[in-house]
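Researcher: For the annotation table, I need structure tokens for SIR2 family protein. Please keep the output clean. Sequence:
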Amino acid sequence: MHNYEKLLNKIRNNEVVLWVGAGFSKYAGVPMGAELVQKIKSSATQSEKELLSHYNTLPEVAEEFVKMRNNKKTELFSIIKNALQVDINVSDLYVHNSLKNIPQIQTIITTNFDDLFERAYGNDIEVIIRDESIATAFSSINSDKVKLFKIHSDFTNPDLIIITKSDYLKFFDSDIFRPLWTEIKSIIAKKSIFFVGYSLEDPNIQFIFDKIIDKLGQFGNECFLAIPQLPEYKQAYLATKNISYIPMSAEEIIPKLEKDIKDKLIEDCSKGLVQFQKVKKVFEKEGVKLDFQIFGQYPYLSSIGLLNGNSDNVNMNLSIRFESNKKDEEYIDIMKKLYEFLNGKSFEPITIPGEFIKEIDSKINGYSINSVPQCLQITNSLHLIPHPEEEYVGHLYFQDVDEPENVIFKRYVSKFLIQTEINHKSFRIIFKFLLKSIDEHHCIIEDKKINIQWLKPSDIYEGSKVSKLLLKWFNGEKVSLYRADDYSIHFDLPDISIEKDNLKEFIESFKLQEFAYSNLIKIQKYFHVNFNVPDKISYDDIDIINRLGNIIQNNGKLYIEELPVEDEKIIALYNKENSDAFEFDIEGEEEETIELFGTELTLGRPHIHCDDAYIETKNIVLDEKEKNFTVIKSKSGNLFIEYKQNK
């Protein structure tokens, strides 16, 4: 198979043009030349059949049949066109689909009339028949498409079809000098041609070897021809044409090339031999999503995942060699988590730092997905994410709320654990049921756990809405989940109000979240500012939010219980009045500001007022010494700071 290996390497290096004959479509039920001859003869009259019996090749029989029809090709075209209309699904075009998965084959030349390439490639192919279509085919908008040169035309361009002997003679006398052939000559001057789907008895291949080579010049590059069981003397003939022989049919060699190319596809991508966008398309057909990052001038594989979460047709094998000298606490902890992950005792994603990994060898459906040779492999980190047994989009309905919340439902199952997740963009609810085996086929729920994770909401309005909804659930109100595409599948979430003691700390923190987001909306409007969603909300933040909320609620006034006093004039005023209560005003000259989540808010000039103030002395300890501390209070609780804006 030395010639096969040479062909494979040339394809990997983008050095091959495919030249396809009728045998390429035989597996799909497309009739070969001899069958078309019989169909033409069967359409002739008895006397015509006797005359046609002296001819055997398709060009000869077609030539005579057209003469019998007053040089009209209408009936001939009807016979051929009907014969080529095979009933086959695109998914069953396995040879054409295998070829489509070889992104290095960007040019196909064919003598076939059928439309199987167009059906298999869809919008990823540009057909070139007429001279005027060359410019469009090679324009920037079609630059990524495979170019299909139909040198004998097809039934979309019947005036250019080459089928009769006269058509061939005209073709070699004048048509071969058309711009289309100038383009083909330019392409094959730089590439090796791989002929497949021909037999040496096929008149097309004889014309190609004897006429086209003479017209276009001897092949400068080694070319290849795949035909099963070719005698040695014919192999010697091919050698005189600089054509290497491979003893395989189209049905054998194309799927094999696909497998061998795909096995090296990511490696070739990292060398710049094939575009990573095309590699992604190839593996998407396997149900696999690949992502790449550019390092230097070449792309390298950065992540691997399932396309649309469907693993039905995906088989992945992963082999990891770890650095044996890593024995620190973090390494040991990750190894424990990895053990639990691989044995189904945990469904939490794992991130393994690259420093712990010596080597990775991985395959998907038998194809290697290592991005670079192992000796050059550098891994920043490896992320392992479990695939759920069940996953769907759901609608989460809260009691007395008409509009549902969109969520993703996931269920993971192992012999040790059942884990159900409800994933919202702002929160994640996890139910874990720990299982205990009682015999080979049965198990019981040994324990259950509920975990609720608050995620960063998209904005403060989302944070306020979602926190209010979840508090309804915490307070015992009904919450139901419906499968979005099938409402007959639904269930109620468990009543966790009975778990309040276990979730007390979490519920309290959630109440603070709801308080914070609801008040941030009011603060935004009152102070004409915009807040980004905070990464975290501290108790100091809550104190500031509470203070600002009071100011807003009381139209710019902040009511306080007491006011520390250092001003001797106020104390003297109280002593002079010598009464139980007195009235006073203090008005500041400078505006006060306060910062919340990186945003500075201007409160205004403080104006302190009280109608029934009195002074109280408290004892405090400072520097281990007891000192008197004077404060002002209000008998009626009407002590406040009013903030006034400068005009």
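Researcher: And a one-line annotation?
Model: Residues 599 and 629 are 34 Å apart (CA to CA).
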